[in-house]
């Protein structure tokens, strides 16, 4: 019995772990190379590399899903937790963890109901953050100078907007072309809104005073780009007032809730953006007429009231009767008043002069002279005492002023001066020595690198009579005369010697200089 069991085990083939893993991989990937799976999205994780990992589940099972970065960028609808979707991809295995997973290539919501559920969830989230609040919406400018339009440049929407603006009140329009549907719609609209907000006011490309985000009508799938959370947040964060005009009047997207004004159609957005110029001019003319009539009526009423008040005022000549009469009375009483005043002052002068006798004045002078002599007698001893105090202070100061401390300080300062002079002399001599060494080294380097050292080795320098260096035979033949420099002097060949001062080099012959 034991022998039979040993034989049975010996006939069973042995596989490596990689063999089993490879066989399972070929089986699963070959059997499920292209599948469509419907389920609810569970946990969603986006790695730093851009790859997305999420779970797809139903009421009994869970499949791990993975989408690489290039696949994620092509998704029209990004999977979100709790969203019911239909995914398309292929089954793969991951040997290091002994698991199988679904490599998802595309994601589609499982019907319009799933899209509406996701839209409602986003609406509740943004509304809870206060992005739909009426208090944060800004008023639109009455007459913007520049209008920025975010839409497709090739659709009928931009033509309707431009036509309506031209009919009502022509304004400057900046168009930012974007895709209005598809996977590129949301990121391009976000870039357009943020780009307009980054314009510098008063720059070469002026910053718009008003933004219009517009698109024609379509299905919920066509308009889904304007339901993306990124678009809603960009519209809410815009510093420029924004009008949303996406779809027809019955279409509603997330951007409509966060925008400062929702227009039913792109044409309605243009009508809300600017007033009618003709109506505005008529209103101005009517207002000007009413203003002129009101001013005329006011002037008339004020003139009538002024005339009524003027009739109640007395005549100018009657206003001077009372002052004129008072002036006559005062002029009659003035001579008697002057005489009475002079008489009173004469009596007062007589009373005062009666008390002014020579004896009284002499007594006052004697008293003043006695006070003066008394003070003069006290002044001389005081001055003598002050002088004595000053002389004593001067003598004390003179005793403190001795020559010895000053001589010692001069000697100390002289020693310090001699020490500094010796140090300065040593430093100057050292600096001169270093400069002399550098000069000698430079001179030696000049002698070793100069061409005169080369002349010592048997070479010569050939120049023409103008002093130009000749390096070719043809140049020497063309020259009329040559000047050859050797190590011990220069030699002219041909021509006549120039009449100039000879060089310091020792001449050897008549033509050597």
Automatic annotation (TrEMBL):
Residues 131-402 form the Exonuclease VII large subunit C-terminal domain. The keyword Nuclease applies. One of its GO terms (molecular function) is exodeoxyribonuclease VII activity. It comes from the Bacteria. One of its GO terms (cellular component) is cytoplasm. Its main location: cytoplasm. It catalyses: Exonucleolytic cleavage in either 5'- to 3'- or 3'- to 5'-direction to yield nucleoside 5'-phosphates. GO terms for biological process: DNA catabolic process. Its EC number is 3.1.11.6. Residues 15-108 form the OB-fold nucleic acid binding domain. InterPro entries: Exonuc_VII_L, Exonuc_VII_lsu_C, OB-fold_nuc-bd_dom. Keywords: Cytoplasm, Exonuclease, Hydrolase, Nuclease. It is an enzyme of class 3 (hydrolase). It is found in: Cytoplasm. Pfam families: Exonuc_VII_L, tRNA_anti_2. CDD domains: ExoVII_LU_OBF. Belongs to the XseA family. Heterooligomer composed of large and small subunits. Bidirectionally degrades single-stranded DNA into large acid-insoluble oligonucleotides, which are then degraded further into small acid-soluble oligonucleotides. This is Exodeoxyribonuclease 7 large subunit. It comes from Pseudooceanicola nanhaiensis. The gene is xseA.
């Amino acid at each position: 019995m034991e022998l039979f069991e040993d034989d049975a085990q010996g006939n069973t083939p042995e596989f490596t772990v990689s063999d089993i893993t490879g066989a399972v991989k070929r089986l699963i990937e070959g059997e499920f190379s292209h599948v469509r799976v419907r389920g609810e999205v569970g946990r969603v994780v986006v790695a730093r590399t851009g790859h997305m990992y999420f779970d797809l589940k139903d009421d009994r099972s869970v499949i791990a899903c993975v989408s690489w970065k290039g696949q994620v960028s092509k998704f029209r609808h990004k999977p979100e937790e709790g969203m019911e979707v239909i995914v398309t991809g292929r089954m793969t295995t991951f040997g290091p963890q002994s698991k199988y997973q679904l490599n998802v290539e595309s994601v589609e919501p499982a019907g319009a109901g799933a899209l509406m559920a996701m839209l409602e969830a986003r609406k509740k989230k943004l509304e809870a953050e206060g992005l739909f609040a009426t208090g944060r919406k800004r008023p639109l400018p009455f007459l913007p100078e520049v209008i920025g339009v975010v839409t497709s440049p090739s659709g009928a929407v931009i033509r309707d907007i431009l036509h309506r603006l031209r009919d009502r009140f022509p304004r400057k329009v900046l168009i930012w072309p974007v895709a209005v549907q598809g996977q590129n719609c949301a990121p391009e609209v976000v870039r357009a809104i943020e780009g307009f907000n980054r314009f510098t006011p008063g720059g070469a490309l002026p910053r718009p005073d008003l933004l219009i985000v517009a698109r024609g009508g379509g299905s919920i799938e066509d308009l889904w780009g304007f339901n993306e959370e990124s678009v809603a947040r960009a519209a809410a964060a815009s510093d420029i007032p924004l009008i949303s005009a996406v779809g027809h009047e019955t279409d509603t997207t997330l951007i409509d809730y966060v925008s400062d004004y929702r227009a039913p159609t792109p044409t309605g957005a243009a009508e809300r953006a600017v007033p009618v110029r003709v109506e505005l001019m008529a209103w101005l003319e009517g207002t000007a007429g009413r203003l002129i009539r009101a001013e005329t009526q006011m002037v008339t009423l004020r003139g009538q009231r002024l005339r009524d008040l003027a009739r109640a005022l007395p005549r100018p000549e009657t206003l001077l009767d009372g002052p004129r009469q008072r002036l006559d009375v005062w002029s009659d009483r003035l001579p008697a008043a002057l005489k009475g005043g002079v008489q009173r002052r004469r009596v007062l002068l007589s009373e005062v002069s009666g008390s002014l006798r020579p004896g009284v004045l002499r007594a006052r002078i004697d008293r003043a002279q006695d006070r003066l002599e008394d003070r003069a007698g006290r002044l001389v001893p005081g001055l003598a005492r002050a002088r004595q105090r000053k002389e004593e202070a001067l003598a004390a100061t003179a005793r403190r002023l001795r020559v010895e401390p000053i001589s010692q300080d001069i000697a100390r300062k002289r020693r310090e001066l001699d020490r500094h002079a010796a140090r300065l002399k040593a430093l100057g001599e050292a600096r001169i020595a270093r400069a002399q060494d550098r000069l000698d080294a430079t001179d030696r380097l000049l002698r070793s690198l100069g061409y005169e050292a080369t002349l010592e080795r048997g070479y010569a320098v050939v120049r023409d009579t103008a002093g130009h260096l000749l390096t070719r035979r043809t140049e020497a033949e063309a020259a009329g005369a040559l000047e050859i420099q050797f190590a011990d002097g220069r030699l002219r060949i041909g021509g006549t010697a120039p009449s100039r001062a000879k060089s310091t080099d020792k001449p050897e012959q008549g033509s050597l200089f």
